[in-house]
Amino acid sequence: MTQVARDSIRILVVDDEEIIREALTEALVWIGYSAVGAASVEQALDLLQDHHFDLVFCDLVMPQSDGFVLLEVLRQQLPATPVIVLTGHATLDLTHRAIHLGAHDFIVKPFSIRELPFIVERNLERIRLETQLREQHVEELLFQTVQALSAAIEAKDPYTAGHSQKVAYLALRIAEALGLCSTDFFALRLAGMLHDVGKIGIPEHVLLKPGKLSEQEWEIMRQHPVIGAEIVGEITDLEYVAKVVRAHHERWDGNGYPDGLSAEAIPYLSRVLYIADAYEALTADRAYRKGMSEEDAMRIIRQGAGSHFDADVVHIFEYTVLPQLPADWHLPSQVNPRLSRTTPEEMLAQTSTPLR
Description:
Strand order of the largest sheet: 2-1-3-4-5
Low-confidence stretches: 332-354
Distance between the termini: 53 Å
Order of helices and strands: HEHEHEHEHEHHHHHHHHHHH
Number of strands: 5
Helix content: 40-55%
Number of domains: 2
Mean pLDDT: 81
CATH superfamily of the largest domain: Hypothetical protein af1432
Structural class: alpha/beta
Strand content: 5-15%
Largest sheet: 5 strands, parallel
Radius of gyration: 29 Å
């Protein structure tokens, strides 16, 4: 661990024996950590209430409240904080009781100062690994939920099979070209997979209509980002992703839906998602038209730069992302012989009434 990293680690030493408490605290500070001493459990609880500590050294045998009381409080209120027990009486019963209450490690008095960095680091590393595994598990469960929601809409509309995954892929390629941060990658991946989940609430006679939608039917269709945002917003910690989903049909000129946002008022990730969604939708077959070539689709998006789309993102998509796409990124969907061919010019005219 570097000196800078050690400076950021705060350690609490709880021991009623002043000579041991001060010696351990000074040794930890000398090594490079930030350390504070407490002479009793009561004093330690006051410090823990007002300050964050990354690790606690705790004596077991103390007057008034003993170390087991502190272990119990930490287990209930700060379970992620590792506790290293200091003891001069390492009996089997004491060890089992301390472990049951959440102790992570033991130091038998007297101990060598030279061992401190190894003791501290192994306990911090253990917590980091536990946190990482817990986060990976939560993320895995989250993506399983997302995939289930995505599969639900694709089961309802066979023409969109694989659409959400392809949109998420394109959106992430744009994010990579833009140099967005890992948090944006995470949010964009989820938003890409969930952007059409609101179509679950759209009647099939509207969703799968082979011809042009009436104005009343468009009013229904325009609700799918709203419904989608409500569904996504019910998932813990995905409020921001819900906002991205809600705005993924907003246009740069303010003529999009559902809120008529324009330009910089549109969330940046929604602008990225809109281009990825439009490009994939234009090149794929739908119930109401046959997919067009990638060249024609790019022509439409280029012509929509500054009206439908953020022109800067369009530029990145055309000149950085598209040239680097693998040839098989878009597996062709089954062609329905009943679908008619729509020219790029006709499609551009249709996008004054937004893509579904």
